[in-house]
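Incident review: delayed structure delivery

Summary: a single-chain prediction request sat in the queue longer than the usual turnaround. Root cause was a stuck worker, restarted by the on-call engineer. No data loss occurred. The affected request and its eventual output are reproduced below so the record is complete for anyone auditing the incident later.

Affected input:
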Amino acid sequence: MTLQNEIIEIEGALRTAGVPIDQILTQAGIDRSTWTRWKNGSVTGARYDSMVRVRAAVEEAAAQKRDAAA
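Output delivered after worker restart:
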């Protein structure tokens, strides 16, 4: 999976969950400008640990939404 495809997948999951991307980026310690460069392809790769932090923040936000809905 390319970085751009992964970003599209993450953003789609966040839209479905109603979680703003800025919340996730703040939790993961990623600047919005970095995310935009990844998304636009001006930077062709992301550090592995950065994407791990983003994915962890997405999972945490989704779990919080599920808990709040229960």
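Verification: The radius of gyration is 12 Å.
Action items: add queue-age alerting; document worker restart procedure.
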